[in-house]
UniProtKB/TrEMBL annotation:
Keyword annotations from UniProtKB, A to Z: Transferase
Protein name per Swiss-Prot or TrEMBL: Glycosyl transferase
Keyword Transferase assigned: yes
Residues covered by the Glycosyl transferase family domain: 176-308
GO terms for MF: glycosyltransferase activity
Membrane-spanning intervals of the chain: none
Single GO BP term: carbohydrate derivative metabolic process
């Protein structure tokens, strides 16, 4: 099958540091190539991929080494979508990861497209937009993500996956600290994580990105809490550091306070054999197997109690659950089922080519 993967241009594929969507695109593209398909990736030129790369700008937008030069994410993405449209006849399936930005340009061939929605959907302007373009087949990354847009043209849910060899559990995990990984923002719950660690009397290491939009929150609310002897702020880390950071942790704290569409960091921890302690928001009940890969709690007291409980979890079983449910191969199989369904429904030369 000839498949086009169209990635956002904000981060490299995969991201050098923090980033979710582009990481998923990277692992999906490679897994599809490994499965024998002809994959073309539209992304920034700093992508690392086994697919055929079509570079749409030299570097990803966020880490572009020319910060003094003004950049237009809208212009970059529109140019990419125009290039994809120009070459659309080369592909059996066009898989978009750019929200709904491509809808006006591809409305006449919507049946040959698949759009994975990676973000939150409880936004006031979205229902009208998806009613305007109902012909586009959509994929959710969790069943819970769909709730604000129940009327939309959903054709499947495919959970995220990661390469099996990306993170490996350490042979002798230390398990002497708690981990917080991701982004510093109120909805991610860093203040909760700090309070849990202090109450449990266990060190906490925070490896997190601080966006400009959250800088004031970090300075005013989080920095004053970092003086505690149990709390260590590591900063933003990339994949190369995650195996040790997550694998040596007693548990990952995921005390979110928002409708998380998926939560990639949960399966990153599971890949390292590390249990997760999380609040029951968004996709969490779908991703975690209660009592196996982690605990779902709804209070600080319950979270503190869970710290000691998860210390006894079978890390090999956690890793095995990751491989079964959240490997890149499992994700690719889910998407391939949807691709073939689209081809079966699509009449014309593309269907004949696939046959």
């Amino acid at each position: 099958m000839r498949i086009a993967q169209i990635s956002p241009l904000y981060e490299a594929v995969p991201p050098r540091l923090y980033g979710g969507t582009e990481r998923v695109v990277a692992h999906l593209s490679d897994a599809l190539v490994d499965a024998g398909h002809d994959v073309t990736l539209f992304a920034s030129g700093d992508a690392t991929t086994r697919a055929r790369l079509v570079p749409m700008r030299p570097q990803a937008l966020r880490l572009d080494p020319t910060p003094t030069v003004l950049k237009s994410d809208l212009a970059a993405h529109l140019a990419m979508l125009d290039e994809v449209r120009r070459r659309a006849h080369e592909f059996d399936v066009l898989h978009f990861h750019t929200d709904l930005l491509h809808f006006p340009l591809f409305a006449d061939i919507a049946g040959r497209t698949l759009t994975t929605l990676h973000g939150r959907l409880d936004i006031v302007d979205l229902p009208a937009a998806y009613r305007r373009w109902p012909q586009f087949p959509l994929v959710s990354i969790s069943h819970r993500q769909r709730q604000p847009l129940r009327h939309a043209n959903w054709i499947g849910t495919v959970h995220h996956g990661l390469r099996r060899d990306l993170f490996l559990p350490p042979s002798s995990p230390r398990g002497d600290y708690l981990a917080f990984l991701g982004r510093i923002s109120p909805e991610k719950g860093p203040e909760r994580a700090i309070e849990i660690a202090k109450r449990a009397g266990v060190p906490l290491k925070i490896a997190a990105k601080v966006d400009l939009a959250d800088r004031a929150y970090f300075v005013e609310r989080i920095q004053p809490l970092l003086d505690h002897p149990l709390i260590e702020f590591v900063g933003e880390i990339g994949d190369a550091e995650k195996s040790a950071f997550l694998g040596d942790a007693l548990a990952l704290l995921f005390p979110i306070d928002w409708p998380e569409p998926f939560g990639l960091v949960m399966i990153e921890a599971m890949a390292c054999g590390t249990p997760v302690i999380a609040w029951p928001c968004g996709s969490v009940p779908e991703v975690l197997d209660e009592g196996v890969t982690g605990r779902i709690v709804d209070s600080l007291d319950a979270a503190v109690a869970a710290v000691r409980e998860v210390a006894g979890y079978d890390r090999a079983r956690i890793r095995a659950t990751f491989e079964r449910r959240f490997s890149a191969e499992a994700m690719a199989r889910g998407y391939l089922e949807l691709y073939w369904r689209l081809l079966a429904q699509h009449e014309g030369p593309v269907r004949a080519t696939a046959a």
